[in-house]
Input
Amino acid sequence: MSDLLERLRERGWRMTSQRRVVAEVLDGDHVHLTADEVHARAAQRLPEISRATVYNALGELVSLGEVKEVSTDGRAKRYDPNAHRPHQHLVCSACGTVRDVHPTGNPLADLPPDQRFGFTISEAEVTYRGLCPSCV
Amino acid sequence: MSDLLERLRERGWRMTSQRRVVAEVLDGDHVHLTADEVHARAAQRLPEISRATVYNALGELVSLGEVKEVSTDGRAKRYDPNAHRPHQHLVCSACGTVRDVHPTGNPLADLPPDQRFGFTISEAEVTYRGLCPSCV
DNA sequence: ATCCTACGATGGACAGAGTCCAAGTCAAGA
DNA sequence: TCTTGACTTGGACTCTGTCCATCGTAGGAT
Output
């Protein structure tokens, strides 16, 4: 079944029903749920799961590198399980929908040394904003 | 004196002591303050200025296009008065410092049509993350 | 210079997102 | 099956931001 569950088990993540449900909710492509959305979906299967547990599990998945946090709008963070293939995000300014996209080129290469100001740069995050087909 | 103040006056922005102080605090280069930081600095000069007023003024400056909102970390938004020259941001993952940078190339051009999924894209925001010289 | 009034400021209540903690529960190894 | 350290719970708390009724004032009118 789920690759994510497999990997977590292999890495010795203590499996509880709560963690399983959170991981299952996040599994898949083009998933960009907020913590509250994850909680709501998890609660459909496990009604008494608490918000704190969801936050804990999400935080651990992020630490493990299995999920990426995405702040698209300065409001709730979204959690993106597609952490293993580098990609960027396309965000609808109206409805907030998020899509994974794969631009050509490497944005890191576009930052010349004299623009790095002594920073040790580790990543470049690109967010494309516009209106999605349903919102035009 | 301040270009920003000049422009605001010309555009008929009703000038109050509070608004003046907020605009003065924001004036300058490489300024990326949070609303609370703006409030703290404004309060040094005008002790009774309220948080609501700062938020109102910031919101209006953003609507007027004189200031850009930047969410670098999913926490407090930062306000960037350098709204007239397009630029991107370099953020220290440790201390949160933000620098304006000017990458070469146009990130919008790096998103091929088949990666636009019917969106009408209006901008591309690039955030470079890494460690600043003081945090390495 | 003074008056008017619509627009702006105030602060306190409220809301949304997230963190923390003490106490209870349970996964998984012995 | 037992044990125990790790996990979960829910409520209190923090931080960021918004809302609103009331009060104050900038700046045009006189």
Q: What stands out?
A: Chain B has four helices and six strands. The first helix of chain B runs from residue 3 to 10.
